[in-house]
Each structure stands twice: as structure tokens, then as C-alpha cells.
Amino acid sequence: MTSRLRTPSRLLIGLLPLWLGACATLPAPPLVSAPVPPQWQAALPHQGSLTDLSQWWRQQGDPVLAELIAAAQAVSPTVASARSRIEQARAARVTAGAALLPTLDASASLSRGRSLQSIGSDSVPVVTTAQAGLQAAWELDMAGGNRASLDAAAQRLLGADAQWHEARVSVAAEVANQYDSLRSCRALADVTQLDAASRQETARLSGLSKQAGFTAPATDALARASAADARGRATRQAALCELDLKALVALSGLAEPDLRQKLAPAQVERAQAAIVSIASVPADVLAQRPDVFSAGREVAAASADVGSAQAARYPRLGLSGSIGATQARALGTTVTLDTWSIGPLSLSLPLFDGGRRAADVQAAQARYAEAAALYRAKVRQAVREVEEALVSLQSTDARQGDAEAAVAGYRAAFTGTEALYKNGLASLLELEDARRTLLTAEISRVSLQQERKAAGVALYRAVGGGWTPALAPLQAGVAAVSPTPASSQ
Questions:
Q1: N or C: which end of the chain has fewer CB within 10 A?
Q2: Which chain regions cross the lipid bilayer (predicted)?
């Protein structure tokens, strides 16, 4: 009877490693495809060139802007939050890695007492007992669940690092746009001040002419009204510049007097060539976008979470052990006892949990599907942003010559009309019409310059701000993101 039971038991023990090994081979979710066009559909200004954009702001020839960006990044709550998430992700990775290692705990105790029972006429003596020991435990990751959790934590750490760079790029773009807004506002303030001065001079001449009886009161009233309107426009523009300055103070965290001093000197126009230096291959551009990279890492982490949830449905094998020493002292006699043990080697077989583990797997698979969809959407959005920035740059570049020609033509027309008006050969209405068209052209030229700078900042942000991922670049065309751990890519 005994021999009959031994054979199946031995067969079961022999097949156990094979069964556990099969449990460790868990299918991974498929690759995530996110195709992009082989080339940009928008025209590349200056044909485009692959450059390192990490020093893009310093290449603009404006040290004040670079200083403001550095100051804003240092005080930005967005950057600080992203940095905090990096530390949290790093701690989560340490926690996940600890599950793969044995645990070791130390314990110590000291007690003193005696029993109230008596043996004959003599009572039990007082006994002092001291104990110390070490307990170790180790769960063998046979199904790979702990390894999958570590892989997920590692991927999320890489994603958190990329999000930190994305936050820095976002802050830099915001400061640059605000800085350009202030400079454009001041340029418009100069235009409106000159226009107000010109209208005031016309009103002065009209008043003298009215006193001499050469100008009708209605015409003089028109000149004075035009001068008042110009002064109001100049005052409003100056107020808008003050608002832009205060917004820049809030972004940079610098004291307003110090910022005013930095912005007081004449500023050099930034070079435009650096704005349009980008990679001509879409996959190269997307590879240096931190948000696309982070979305890809989240896909890999979600895939690892699926493996971890699946591993929880398989047997778990654990091993424990301990070593200790006990010392007892009574009536001047000391007794020392050393103990050690290895085991038990325990096997846990999940049999019934009401469907909890199966539901965990389904939830992990749903999160993976969501991460994959978000990644594809992020790639499409990245392509759109680059294309839109290129279109804006192309449009502003094409309109720049026309804007300059319009200003030059309207200025010549105004100068001629003003000369005719001073000699009595042109009416005030003709002069005001020429001045109005000149002012509109000058405002349009300044607005076009700001639009071009904003398009350059948008392109800088769209291509990732020169950030380079820590891992190898994505596959050509960003065709797929592997859900496997980073170490295998």
C-alpha cells in the first residue's frame, strides 16, 4: 500500500518545477503601433537641419531671456511637482526591487519571573531569560510577478524623468512667449507714442491756422479729437506693457526693480535662423519629445502590470529560516541555548478568491489598452503641433517682405500728404487717412514679428526642446513601442 502512494507523489514532485516554470512564461500584450508620415507635409524653412536644441535659448543672442528662463524654472511649481514625482517613482522602484530579495529581521527580548507553584517546601527560583535572534524569509519569484512589478516601476521612473523635462520645456516656452509679448508691446508703445506726437503737432498747427482764420472750427476740432484719441491709445498701450512686465515678474520670481533694470538696456533682435533648425525626419523629432517618450514608457509599465496581475493567479513558493540564542540565569547558574532552523519551504496554491485575481488581470489589461490609446493620440498630436508650427513659420516668413514694403509705402505716402497739408494743398481728412493707414501697417508689422517669434517658440516646444531620451531612440517612424522592460530594448 505504501509503495503505491510513493510513485504518484514522486511524480508530482518531479513535475512541480516544470509546472512552475510554465507559470513564469506569461504572454505579454502586443506591441503598440503608432505610424507617422515619412516626411513633413509642411514646407521646411531653409530646408531644415538636424541640430542640438538643448542650448536653443542661448543661441538667440539674448542673455536676458536665458536668465529669465533659468529663474522661472527654478521657482516653477510645475517643475517642482515633476521633480517630486521623480523621487516618488524612484522610491517605488526601490520598493518593487526589495520584493525580489530576502527579508531579514532581528529580535531581542528580556524577561524575569518565577512560578508561584511550589515543589515540596522550596519555591521555584527567579529566572532571568534573554533571547536574541534573526529571522529570514524569501519568496521565490517563480511566476515572475515581482520582476514584472520592478519592470513597471523602472519604466515609470523613466517616464517621470521625461515629464520633468517636459515641465521645464513648458516653462521655458511660457517665459519666452511672455518675454516676446513684452517686447512687442513696447514696440507698439513706441509706434503709438510717435503717432500721438505727430497728431499733437497737427493739432497745434491747426490751432494756429484757426486763429489766423485759415481753418474752419470743425476742422480744428477734428485735429484736436484725433490728438486726444492718439494720446488715449498710447496710454492704454503703456498700461498693457506694465501688465506684461508684472506677468514676467510672477513667472521668473525676480524682484520687479531688478527685472526693470535688466530690461532697460537696448535689446538686440534675436537671430531667426535658430528658430527653424529642426530635424527633417518626423521620427527623429518625435524621439526627442519627452511627452511621447513618457507615454511610451507608460505603455511598457502597463504591460508589466498585466504580467504582475497574471502571476498572482499562480502558485507562490516561499522559504524562511531563523537563528537565535537564549540565555537563562537562575540561582547563579547560567544556561545558554543556540538554535537555528531552515524552513519551512511553503507552497501557496490559490484555489478560490471570488474572482478577485481574474478581475485584477482584466483591470490591468484595460489600463494597458488605455495607455496604448493615449500613446497613439500623443504621437498624432506631436505630428500636428510640428506641422502647425512649420506652417506658421512659413506663413510669417512669406509675409515679412510684404509687411516691410507696406510700411515703407504708407510712410512715403504720409510724408507726402503731410507736406501738402502744411502747404495748404491737402485737407486734414486726407492727412488723417494717410496717418491711419500708416499706423495700421506699423502695428501689423510688429504683430507679424511677434507671431513669428511665437511660431518659433511653438516649434521649439513641438520638437521637444532638445531633450534626448535616456534610452535608445524609438524605432524608425515610431512604428511601435515594445512593452518589454527598458533593459531589453
A1: N
A2: none
In 10 A of CB 218, how many CB atoms? 9
From the list 59, 77, 54, 57, the residue with the least C-alpha distance to 68 is 57
Residue that wins the pLDDT comparison between 2 and 175 = 175
Q: Which residue, chain included where needed, has cell 512560578?
A: 115
- Identify the pLDDT of residue 8: 45
Instruction: Find out whether 113 and 272 touch, Cβ atoms under 8 Å.
Output: no
pLDDT digits (tens, 9 = 90+) for 342-397: 878 888 888 888 899 999 999 999 999 999 999 999 988 988 898 898 889 889 98
* Contact criterion met (CB below 8 Å) for 441 and 403: yes
Q: What is the pLDDT of residues 291-311, one digit of tens each?
A: 988 998 999 999 999 999 999
* Inter-residue contact 294 to 287 (CB < 8 Å): no
The length of the chain is 489
Cell 531552515, located at residue: 342
Q: How far is CA 403 from the centre of its chain?
A: 37
- Cα separation of 52 and 409, whole Å? 41
Kindly report, residue by residue over 454-467, the tens digit of the pLDDT: 998 898 888 888 67
| CB contact set of 282 (below 8 Å; sequence gap of 6+) | 36, 37, 38, 39, 40, 383, 386, 477, 478
Amino acid at 135: Q
